[in-house]
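Lab notes, practical 5.
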Amino acid sequence: MSRDTATQSASRCSCGHSLTWEHREGYGGRRSLAFCQNPDCGILTTVLPEGIQPEHGLAACLLGPIAPRRYLKPWVRLYFRTAAWGFIWRPCPQVCPDCAGEITVHLGLPPLVERQTDPYEVLMCLTCGATGMAWWLTGERTTIAIEGSEWVEPSGTVLILRRVLEERAARNREGSAWDFE
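Output from the prediction step:
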C-alpha cells in the first residue's frame, strides 16, 4: 500500500470525521497538512497517521525548510526600505521623548522648488516608532509628532511621509535629481 493510500484510509480526526490530506513534495522532503471534514470542527493538523509530528507544525508544512522571516515593525520596514532607496539616515544624539530609547535616527531632506510641501527633516525612534517631521510653511517652522501606534493602521501623516519618500526615490531613479541644465 502506498503512503498516500495509507494516509487516506487511516485518517480520522479526534471528532470522528475524516481528514482530507494535502501533500507537498519539495526540497527537504514531503510535507503534509490535513483538514477535518466536519464543519463544526474544522481542525488543521500536520501529524501524519504514522504519528510523525513535524518540528514546527504548520510553519514546517507551509514553508518547508525555509525559516520564516522575523516580524519587523512598520517604521523599521520604512527605515530599511528607504535606506535601500539611497536615503541616508544619521544617528540622532537625542533620546526618544516617548520611550527614552537611544536608537533614534535623523533624515534630512533637501528642499526642492517643485516640492515645497515636503518635510525637510524626519526624526524617528527605531524602538517605539515615535516620529517627528518638520516643514517650512509660509516662513514658519511647523512640526508634527507621530506616535508609534499610528504606524499600525497608518495615519494620514504616516501615509504622507511614505508617499513623499517613495516619490523622491522614484524621482532620483529617473535621474531628474542630477539635471543641472
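Observations recorded by the TA: Confidence is low (pLDDT under 50) at residues 5-10, 177-181. The chain has two domains: 3-63, 74-178.
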